[in-house]
Structures are given as C-alpha cells and as structure tokens.
Amino acid sequence: MDIVYSVLRILFESALLLLISKTIISKYIENLFLKNIELTKHELNSEIEKLKFKLQIDLLNIKIILEKQHQIYAEMYAKLLSSHGKIRLLFGMIREELTFEEYDINDMETYLKNNKVPRGKISEIIDLFNRNKAIAIKETKRYLRMIEFDNAKNSLKEFSNFFWLNEFYLNESFKNSFNNLRTDLHSLLTDYEIANSFPEHLKIEKTSEKERLIDSKIEALVLELRKEFLKG
After folding, report:
1. Enclosing domain of residue 86
2. Residue 40 lies in a domain
3. How far apart are CA 71 and CA 232, in angstroms?
4. Which terminus of the chain has fewer CB atoms gathered within 10 Å of its CB, N or C?
5. Structure pTM?
C-alpha cells in the first residue's frame, strides 16, 4: 500500500511539475512574443517617422525648386522681351528716327548727353555742327545707329548668358523654347546688321517671315508660361 501511495505521489508531483514547467515556458514565450511585438512596433513607428520626415524634406525641396524655377522663367522672359524689343526697333514699320533739322547747337548737345554719348564724341559733333550742320546730323545718325546695334547686341548677350547660367533649372520644354528664340533672335540681328551695312542685300520677305515666326513663338511661350504659373 505504501508503495502504491509513493508511486501515485511521484506521478502527481511529476504531473504538477510538468504543468508548472509548461506554464512557465508558455508565459516566457508569451512575454518574449509581446516583447518582440513591442520592439517591432517601435521600429515600425521609427521607420514611419523617418519616412514622414524624408517626405517633408522632399516636398520642401520640390517647393523651393518650383519657386526658383518660376522666378527664373519670369526673369528670363523679361530679358527675352527686352532683347526682342531692342532688335525689332532696328528695322521695320515701328522704327522712328529724328531728322534733327529743327535742332540748334544747344538742343543737339542736350540730346547727345541724354543718350549717353561719350563727351569726346559730343565735342566732335558740336564742333562739326558749327561748321556744317548737315554733316554733323549725318554723323550723329551714324553714331546713334551704332549705339542702337550695340545695345541690341548687349541685350541679346545678357539674355543668352542668363539662359546658360540657369539652364539646369529649366524643364525640357521651356529650355527648347527659350533656346530656339535665342538662336532666332541672333539670326535676325545678323540679318539686320548686314542690311544696315549693305541695304541692297536686305531680303524683306525672308526677314519678315523670321519676324513673324519669332512673334508667334513668343505668343506660344506666353501661353505655356501662364499654364506653368497656374499649376504652381
């Protein structure tokens, strides 16, 4: 009887020990699982915060680039119009020219100063004006014409330099539009220079076609710029 009792007690204690062990192991696994879940949750939250921060930085960079881009488009368009205006004024129906016939010597000197003619050249023209007004007027027109061409060249050069300095910020469409207009204006200015020196070489139909093409390209560019600014 004692032996049976001892065996039963051993079996009971073993079963109890096994149950306790299973409970402890189960609890340990549960705690480990929960700990891993918390760790994974923390890591996930950390990654989400990193992605949110990166997204904010990317959006900010895009905003800065777009603002810079729009600023460049506006300034480049202004330089294009300035260059176009100075070149187109060299020839054509919109060109006006003073005769200087009604000018006296004081009027002539004031006019030359206002047009930033160098003092040495002013003295030369005034001296010539005292001796022969017709020749002085002819020389004045020749010199002012030279200044007009220089101003047109400088304006086109300024537009070209601004284009090359900021080419990086232009999208492909606007880069092509501005560059095509730049080359078209250079070609038109070359035609005007040839016509100014050799009037008999002026081909009015060909030059007029270039002028119309440039005007239509500028109109198309304006429409595209409006769309771009409305997007921003």
Report:
1. 65-231
2. no
3. 12
4. N
5. 0.69
pLDDT digits (tens, 9 = 90+) for 48-74: 565 555 555 555 445 556 678 889 999
Residue 144 inside a domain? The answer is yes
Q: HSE (CB half, 13 Å, CA atoms) of 154?
A: 6
Counting the structural domains of the chain, the total is 1
Count how many Cα atoms sit within 13 Å of the Cα of residue 67 in the half-sphere of its side chain. 6
Token pair listed for 9: 């007690």
pLDDT-flagged residues of the chain (< 50): 4-5, 7-8, 11-12, 60-61
Query: Six-digit token pair at 45?
Result: 């939250």
* Measured distance CA(111)–CA(26) in Å, rounded: 103
Integer-rounded Cα radius of gyration of the chain: 42
What does the H/E/C string look like for 33-95?
A: HHHHHHHHHHHHHHHHHHHHHHHHHHHHHHHHHHHHHHHHHHHHHHHHHHHHHHHHCCCCCCC
7 located within any domain = no
pLDDT for 232 equals: 58
Cα pseudo-dihedral 162, 114, 118, 80, rounded to 10: 10
User: Tens digit of pLDDT for each residue in 89-129?
Assistant: 898 655 667 888 899 999 999 999 998 899 999 999 999 99
Q: In this structure, is residue 51 part of a structural domain?
A: no
